[in-house]
Design brief:
The protein is an all-alpha fold and about 160 residues long. The protein has five helices and no strands. Helix 1 runs parallel beside helix 4. It is rod-shaped, with a radius of gyration of 26 Å.
Length: about 160
């Protein structure tokens, strides 16, 4: 057997193994990015659900003018606690890109301002409550757009 046949076979084997390893590495990298994106998407959804649910309860507290202020205040505070808004914000602070974290903090602050307006005695019809609710809604919309952009950009 000639040495050129052996050399050709050896080179072919090395090229084949190299191509397989490269393809596996590319596939692993793509799958890894997809898992990271899915994890981030789930964290986003969890946070958005928490602030939406808390906002709904704060809104109900602001509309229930028949209840004493102390009860409405407690309901507004409880909404933030029960839906773990701050804990979910902290999870995103550890996992999300910095520009999204800024938007998360802004949305949480908007919700806190809304809650504080209700705790301060504002009802749903008061200008203070309306302004806080609208500011929160705008911050949440900006946040959702920022979150969507990170999930699309990750493709």
């Amino acid at each position: 057997m000639e040495w050129t046949v052996l050399a050709g076979t050896g080179v072919g084997a090395v090229v084949g193994v190299g191509a397989t390893l490269l393809a596996d590495r590319v596939r692993w990298s793509r799958d890894s990015r997809a898992r990271e994106r899915e994890t981030l998407r789930l964290l986003y959804v969890d946070y958005l659900e928490a602030i939406a649910s808390a906002r709904d309860e704060i809104s109900r507290a602001s509309a229930d003018v028949g209840r004493p202020l102390a009860e409405r205040s407690e309901a507004a505070h409880r909404a933030m606690r029960e839906h773990e808004v701050f804990a979910k914000q902290y999870q995103l602070e550890l996992s999300a890109p910095p520009d999204v974290v800024e938007l998360v903090v802004s949305a949480t602050q908007g919700l806190v301002d809304y809650r504080d307006a209700v705790v301060g005695g504002a009802t749903r019809e008061d200008d203070t409550c309306t302004a806080a609710r609208r500011a929160f809604r705008a911050a949440r919309k900006t946040l959702t757009e920022g979150m969507r952009a990170t999930l699309v950009a990750s493709d």
